[in-house]
Write a structure and sequence with these properties.
single chain, alpha/beta, 6 helices, binds magnesium ion
Length: 174
């Protein structure tokens, strides 16, 4: 079903979302995909904008938790510069990793939101977990982990969604 892949919101970049927007929606923590959402393969330390955003989130007491399909070792190393918690081997598009993160945070489904760059894994997993989601544009077009096949499937899913829903990106979380 194509609606299983429908994001709640579309925002171009993660750091365009302000902490007060999350708070206004009742979110108490933010779950994020790692590769191409938080960091790009060619910039593992993240951008200054991302670092500023993480600082803002910390100031507002909004935990950011990475939920990645990658293995423990790689995710641990990738998030080390940012001092944030993570779930590895999340098995997206299934909901297991997201549910684990929600349990660790001791929050409910309505209190968390998932941010990711892929419809078929990130958004599908968020919908299966029964939580709201934000689709962002991938940080770089080509990356080491996303195959050409994956990208073709993403494009097909996007076209199907665009036939039924408004798939335009918003400047902020409405
Ligand atoms: Mg990704």
């Amino acid at each position: 079903m194509i609606e299983d892949l429908k994001p709640t919101w579309l925002i171009e970049k993660i750091y365009e979302i302000q902490p007060e927007d999350f708070i206004r929606h009742g979110f108490k923590a933010v779950l994020v995909d790692l590769d191409n959402t938080l960091i790009a393969w060619n910039n593992p330390d993240g951008t200054p904008e991302l670092r500023a955003w993480l600082t803002l989130m910390k100031q507002e007491n909004l935990p950011v938790v990475v939920v990645s399909n990658n293995n423990f070792k790689r995710v641990k190393k990738a998030v080390a510069p940012f001092d944030i918690n993570f779930i590895s081997r999340a098995m997206k598009p299934f909901h297991f990793g997201i549910i684990r993160a929600i349990k660790q945070l001791k929050l409910s489904q309505a209190e968390v939101v998932f941010i990711g760059d892929q419809l078929m894994t990130d958004i599908h997993a968020a919908n299966r977990a029964g939580i709201k989601s934000i689709l962002v544009k991938p940080l770089v077009k080509s990356d080491a982990w996303v195959t050409k096949l994956n990208r073709a499937r993403e494009r097909r899913a996007w076209s199907k969604l665009a036939r039924q829903y408004d798939m335009s990106y918003q400047d902020r979380l409405e």
